[in-house]
Amino acid sequence: MDSSKIKEKIGRFRILVIGRANAGETTILQRVCNTRENPEIYNSAGEKIDPTVLMASTERGEHDIENEMVFRNNPGLVFHDSRGFEAGGESESDKMKAFIASRSKESTLKNQLHAIWYCIPMDEASRSFTEGEIKFFSQCDRIQPSLMFD
Ligand SMILES: Nc1nc2c(ncn2[C@@H]2O[C@H](COP(=O)(O)OP(=O)(O)OP(=O)(O)O)[C@@H](O)[C@H]2O)c(=O)[nH]1
Ligand SMILES: [Mg+2]
């Protein structure tokens, strides 16, 4: 299959971005997409979410992993945003694991995840790895995502 056929089948390239609060994910995505704009956000039903409603929830540090973020100038990439393995963040990482597992079972290529980016802040103030991260990375090269979190 040549790359244009693959592209046609995938539709949009779907990337899950995982990182701690303020790790700089949004900034990285803006750089990758070569824009300074904020992404447009759509819920899982494909409805656009009012930015003012969203602003209130993101200021409280909430991200809905099911939401799709798309930069207007780069509609071929769709991002999902999630917290990583933070202390006290059990339910967030459970949601992330459930999301990865359910997307790996999607029957259409278009709805599956095509890449996962894990952001680790490299400044000295932050600890390098959390216990949850060490566990996650020691498992995920050996086990298929669909089996990993069952
Ligand atoms: N020093 C430094 N600051 C950065 C870097 N990347 C982003 N920032 C700043 O860190 C802050 C958070 O960046 P965001 O890109 O919003 O981080 P985020 O992980 O998307 O944040 P949340 O979605 O709120 O968790 C902003 O004030 C950025 O300007 C970096 O590489 N170095
Ligand atoms: Mg962000």
UniProtKB/TrEMBL annotation:
- InterPro entries attached to this UniProt entry: P-loop_NTPase
Q: What is this protein called?
A: G domain-containing protein
Protein species of origin: Suillus placidus
